[in-house]
């Protein structure tokens, strides 16, 4: 059982979204910059993506979990710690030239990553509206943890190299967020564990291997 009701959960999101405007469009812009850098394999893509994710994970940990979600769920203090820890990990990745790169990806991984990113940015809020919720009582990308984790998994699916310990917090949240989505009947969050399983399969089970090509069709050397 959860220590709060579904109505209380969405009331909290309404207060949260109203308090943080205009953070949502700012995070959408940040996400688009990170996505473009990763897709185009910019020489500094690892730094750009890791830096953007560090900012978004820090926000979710400090502002959403720490300042708001703790009002209705004492466990949110632990969630805040986990998200802030992941933000530190991303900040470390941003400062390391060899820790996170996008030099190579197969067509399968490219399509899977795009599916997760598009879902987090576009489909997620649309499903929320279709389920009967309306802004501001609507979890939104960038400021809500579940779509942020789906977006993160999409970028990690594109990456040519990701240390195993970078996966821990996103995968743990996929379990927590996915189970809460079922209990609270939040259908847009049901994709979270599915995205996690798909990302793991592509990264660690040898799926989607093969020679990659650039977005403009030229082979990547």
From TrEMBL:
Keywords per UniProt: Membrane, Transmembrane, Transmembrane helix
Keyword Transmembrane helix in annotation: yes
InterPro entries on file: DUF6064
Residue ranges of the TM segments: 20-39, 46-69, 75-92, 112-131, 137-157, 164-184
Protein's UniProt name: MFS transporter permease
Species of provenance: Novosphingobium endophyticum
């Amino acid at each position: 059982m959860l220590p709060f009701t579904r109505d209380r959960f969405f009331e909290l999101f309404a207060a949260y979204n109203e308090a943080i405007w205009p953070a949502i469009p700012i995070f959408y812009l940040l996400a688009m910059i990170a996505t473009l850098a990763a897709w185009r394999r910019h020489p500094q893509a690892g730094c750009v993506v890791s830096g953007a994710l560090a900012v978004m994970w820090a926000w979710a940990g400090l502002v959403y979990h720490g300042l708001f979600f703790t009002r209705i769920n004492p466990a949110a203090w632990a969630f805040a710690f986990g998200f802030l820890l992941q933000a530190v990990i991303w900040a470390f990745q941003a400062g390391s030239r060899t820790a996170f790169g996008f030099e190579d990806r197969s067509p399968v991984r490219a399509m899977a990553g795009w599916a997760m990113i598009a879902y987090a940015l576009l489909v997620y809020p649309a499903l929320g509206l279709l389920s009967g919720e309306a802004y501001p009582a609507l979890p939104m990308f960038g400021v809500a943890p579940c779509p942020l984790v789906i977006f993160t998994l999409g970028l990690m699916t594109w990456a040519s190299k990701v240390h195993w310990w970078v996966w821990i917090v996103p995968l743990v949240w996929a379990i927590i967020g996915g189970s809460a989505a079922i209990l609270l009947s939040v259908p847009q969050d049901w994709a979270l564990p599915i995205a996690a399983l798909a990302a793991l399969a592509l990264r660690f089970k040898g799926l989607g291997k093969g020679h990659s090509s650039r977005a403009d069709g030229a082979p990547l050397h």
